[in-house]
Design a protein that fits this description.
The chain has a 5-stranded mixed beta sheet with strand order 6-5-9-7-8, sandwiched between helices. Strands 3-2-1-4 form a 4-stranded parallel beta sheet, sandwiched between helices. The chain is an alpha/beta fold and 425 residues long. A hairpin with an 8-residue loop joins strand 7 and strand 8. It binds flavin mononucleotide. The site of flavin mononucleotide has 24 residues, from strand 4 and helix 16.
Length: 425
């Protein structure tokens, strides 16, 4: 067997997953002891919310698929993981791919699909290899096929390598790409549950979301709901990156503070440095300043703080960094990754980048500050076809809100005070 970075060594993955983690017992239970509607209800009871970014209630999403409608239905797994600062799906795929396979099979059975597709980020060679092996092993064991575990209900999973653009992770652009077209978002409605892949009802879920399902089926939705907070139950994987001593993927019970995650789990900033700002849910989530480290990781607390849990990517910047430059860098990313289909995003991103460039070249004034705010407003609140535009707007808006003085230093006084921080401050 080829060398791998995951934790399975030379043994077939399924053996370890089965012997150590009770693997595929949830699938057996789902196929033989439960009705599809019970599965959906169990996931509803768990309160699980999607881990891909939008945080939509998973069981409710499953219930949108009309299981009894004639014709094919699909499960599509979002393994694109294109959000900057997020690497938790990769971690799951490299370390426990069978958990994902089992979750996919249960979801497919619950919503009446026989075919699942995993749309996996093009650059994810190792996760693709691990998942392919897991699927092959599950097929060899008879868990995937015309009669999984002897049940007369065909189930199949296939992989599709993504096309290397951020927009490919947006669910409707992903579906376009899966169909072999250019990845651009569709206007909604209709939503994928009604008209998804190849125009058929489609359940689209994130890797981590589906990897959570076997535990819920084995232990019951009520047991899952006891973890975390009332409205954001369970645990989630947070990818902590940036200026911390121990960057990595950490599983936390939802409701812990970011102070715990950043300062304790990830070891805090380097010696002598202070946290200045952090992105609590990937680069798309509005930033929070150091004074808000005690905000908790649940969606409700983050919404109250005018941010979001997003994809769970916690990006930390210390006091050696200039927020205006960081925002400029991110806007360059969003402008570059804009698919160009809708005007506010196509035009707004470039406009913001040009405005930042004037500010950073010491050619700024109050006009540039007002322009940034106006462009930010024009990108948000449903004005764009998908969330990419909102994300670009939130970077501007949240950095302006929390770091107004730093912007004014640049735009009005033509100076950057971050450089003034002594090396050992
Ligand atoms: C620009 C953009 C990129 C996205 N990238 C991803 C991604 O890489 N992975 C992901 O699971 N969700 C991504 N999403 C969110 C998906 O559109 C969708 O909400 C999610 O996959 C649904 O699964 P869930 O309900 O299990 O969270 C992205 C959204 C936008 C607007």
């Amino acid at each position: 067997m080829a060398e791998r970075r995951g934790s399975f060594g030379d043994q077939p993955q399924h053996l370890l997953y089965e012997s150590k983690a009770g693997g595929y017992t949830a699938l057996r239970k789902a196929l033989f002891d439960m009705k599809p509607v019970d599965l959906t209800n169990e996931v509803k009871t768990s309160g699980l919310r999607g881990r891909g970014g939008a945080g939509f209630a998973t069981g409710v999403k499953w219930s949108f698929i009309n299981r009894d409608a004639p014709g094919p239905k699909y499960v599509v797994v979002n393994a694109d993981e294109s959000e900057p600062g997020t690497a938790k799906d990769r971690y799951i795929l490299e370390n426990s791919p069978h958990m994902v396979v089992e979750g996919i099979l249960i979801a497919a059975y619950a919503v009446g699909a026989n075919q699942a597709w995993v749309y996996i980020r093009g650059e994810y060679d190792e996760p693709s290899r691990m998942l392919t092996e897991a699927i092959d092993e599950a097929r060899a064991k008879g868990y995937i096929g015309p009669q999984p575990m002897g049940k007369d209900y065909p189930l199949d999973i296939r992989l599709y390598r993504g096309h290397g653009a951020y927009i490919c992770g947006e669910e409707t652009a992903l579906l376009e790409s899966l169909e072999g077209k250019r990845a651009q978002p569709r206007s909604r409605p209709p939503f994928p549950a009604v008209k998804g892949a190849w125009g058929r009802p489609t359940l689209l879920n994130n890797v981590e979301t589906l990897a959570t399902v076997p535990w819920i089926i084995n232990n019951g939705g009520a047991a899952y709901a006891k973890l975390g907070t009332d409205k954001s139950p369970g645990t989630r994987l947070l990818t902590v990156s940036g200026n911390v001593r121990k960057p990595g993927v950490y599983e936390v019970e939802i409701g812990q503070t970011f102070r715990h995650v950043i300062m304790e789990l990830a070891g805090g900033p380097p010696e002598g440095r202070k946290v200045k700002v952090f992105w609590p849910g990937g680069s798309s989530a509005p930033v929070l300043p150091e004074s808000m480290l005690d905000v908790t990781t649940d969606a409700e607390a983050l919404a109250a703080a005018r941010s979001m849990a997003g994809s769970g990517g916690v990006i930390v910047m210390d006091d050696t960094h200039c927020v205006v430059r960081a925002a400029h860098r991110l806007l360059k990313f969003y402008a570059y990754e804009s698919c160009g289909k809708c005007t506010p995003c196509r035009v707004g991103g470039d406009w913001a980048v040009r405005t930042y460039e004037r500010i950073l070249a010491n050619q700024g004034s109050q006009v540039e500050l007002d322009t940034l705010q106006r462009v930010s407003d024009g990108l948000q609140n449903g004005r764009c076809l998908c969330g990419l535009g909102d994300s670009a707007g939130w970077v501007i808006d949240s950095t302006l809100r929390h770091f107004r003085e730093e912007y004014e230093d640049h735009a009005l006084r033509h100076e950057c005070n971050v450089g003034a921080v002594p090396a050992n401050a």
